[in-house]
Amino acid sequence: MQQNPITIYCADIFDLYYNGLQMAIKNEPNHNFKIIGNSKTISCLINNVSLYQPNVILLSHQLLDGYVFKHFSHIKYVCPNVKIVMLTMAFSMKTMLKTIGKIDGFIGKDAEINEIIHCLKLVLQGEKYFVVSGF
User: Fold this and answer.
1) Which residues are 59's β-sheet partners?
2) What are the residues facing 107 on neighbouring strands?
3) 13 neighbors 64 (Cβ within 8 angstroms)
4) pLDDT band at 21 (very low <50, low <70, confident <90, very high)
5) Rounded to two decimals, what is the model's pTM?
6) Three-class secondary structure of residue 61 per DSSP
7) What is the pLDDT of residue 135?
8) pLDDT (tens digit, 9 = 90+) per residue, 39-54?
9) Residue 24: what pLDDT?
10) C-alpha angle with apex 105: 63 to 124, nearest 5 degrees?
11) 83-88 and 33-39 strand pairing
């Protein structure tokens, strides 16, 4: 019997990144992940996460209507069991430190798909994953 897929909701302003990630996850074997949507604004993200209740959110540090840092608690309020992983090109230690204790993972957009899947599997098991190349 096939299990229900692990649902992933994305939040990124770049269609190319979202479409590429969607294709890469779909084509990667040995997992049960399904990307169910993408938002380009924080307000749309919060509404859709509340509606769809995904297992994981993969998000950029900035969307069209602002930075996501101050919205983590609201996201967790509308979707209490969600795991949040930030995928970003913002490689500063300051950016990473803003997220520690508030999200479950932090990884660079330059990561290979197998590293992203590894990160997702770990955070879904309750572990934290904070890795960015260049540190």
Assistant:
1) 11, 86
2) 87, 131
3) yes
4) very high
5) 0.91
6) coil
7) 46
8) 999 999 999 999 999 9
9) 92
10) 115
11) unpaired
The whole-angstrom distance between residue 115's C-alpha and the CA centroid of its chain comes to 13
SS3 call for 17: helix
- CB < 8 Å & 24+ apart, contacts of 67-74: 68/11, 68/42, 69/98, 69/99, 69/102, 71/42, 71/45, 71/46, 72/99, 72/102, 72/103, 73/102, 74/46
Separation in Å, CA 2 to CA 13, 31, 32: 33, 12, 9
Across residues 73-100, what is the average pLDDT? Answer: 85
Stated length of the chain: 135
pLDDT at 63: 96
Please identify which residue in the block is written with the tokens 């993408």: 38
Q: Is 19 helix (H, G, I), strand (E, B) or coil?
A: helix
pLDDT score, position 1: 46
